[in-house]
Amino acid sequence: DFSSLRQWVAAYEVHGAAALEVKKVQHYSAEFRMFVLKRMREEQLSYRQVAALFDIRKFNIVGDWERRYDEGGENALSRQPKRTGFPRKMPKPTLPAQPQSPDDESRTRDELIAELNQLRMENDYLKKLDALVQKKRAAQQKKRKS
């Protein structure tokens, strides 16, 4: 992707090899965001240029800040935007610890029934999940066609 390559080159030109190091997720204060926007507007810099100048990994976040500032002023920069898109994944249900490889002959009837019920629940869950995924795909395809 040439866009990413241009971004890396611009960051390297400003910050040297340190700009190419892997970094953890960065959270920016409202004051920093405001400073970036003021500098961008004063010097008429593009999102890419200001992102390279301030070592911001994703230049499009500057556009988000600008849109939020234009819509709600400085207070909008201090609030976190509402999450959109897919919801976070559901946590996997915790399963009771099972013996490594028990011999079915030595297990009691109650243990076998409990395992059977657990497997049935897992199977039902996976079927429901598959049905929801199929429904979502069908809705997306229908939306694309229209």
UniProtKB/TrEMBL annotation:
Residues 32-83 form the Insertion element IS150 protein InsJ-like helix-turn-helix domain. Residues 72-112 are annotated as: Disordered. Residues 80-91 have a biased composition (Basic residues). Gene3D superfamilies: Winged helix-like DNA-binding domain superfamily/Winged helix DNA-binding domain. GO terms for molecular function: sequence-specific DNA binding. Pfam families: HTH_28. Belongs to the IS150/IS1296 orfA family. This is Insertion element IS150 protein InsJ-like helix-turn-helix domain-containing protein. It comes from Pseudomonas mandelii PD30.
